[in-house]
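Task: sequence in, structure out. Protein: Phosphoglycerate mutase.
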Amino acid sequence: MSRKLYIMRHGETLFNQQKRVQGWSDSPLTEVGIQQAEDAGRFFKERHIFFDKAYSSTQERATDTLKLVTDAPYEQLKGLKEMNFGIFEAREENLLPKFRPGANSFEDLLVPYGGEDINQVGQRVYQTIQEVLDKTKDDSMLMVSHGAALWGLILHLKITLPADFRFSNCAVCQFGISRQDLSLEALINPLTREEILL
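Result:
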C-alpha cells in the first residue's frame, strides 16, 4: 500500500462569506466553516483514514480547520500559505484583474500589484511537501492549505482538472506517494461525500 498525503482547503471564513480576497491576510472561520471542518473530520473517521502527522499553513483559518478535523500531532509550515494577492488583500473579489483569455489562473497578473505569480506559489507548496517527505516516513499525512495554493500545486505538477473545477471549502486532494513522487489519486468533497477517482 502506498503512502498517502491528503491536502485540504480550509473551511469557510468571514472573508469567504463577504466575497473578499484573503491571500496572506486572515479572517476567522464562520460557524459554517467550523461545521464544515467537523464534517470533514467525520468523513475521514467513517473511511477509517487516520493521520500519523498533520501540517497546516501558518494562517489561522488553516490551523483552526486542522484542529477540528484531526487530533494528530501537527506542525505549521509557511510554505503552505495562500498566494499573496498584493494590494488586493482584504478587498472585494470583483476588483481582481480578469484572467487572460484561455487562462485558468491569475498566472503572473498580480505581480505588478505586489502579489505572487501562481507558478511561484505552486513551486513553494511543492518544495514544502518535498521537505516534509525528505524528513518523515509517515504513511498517512494531512496538510491544510488554501485554494490558490492548491491550484498552484496542481499546475506545478502539470495535472489537468475539469475546466470548471474549483476547490470548494474543505475540498481534498488525495495523493499517493511513491518514493518522493506525488500521484493524484482522487478529488474528494468530504461535505457531499463525492469522490472523483483519477
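The beta strands are 3-9, 53-57, 74-77, 140-145, 172-178, 181-189, 194-197.
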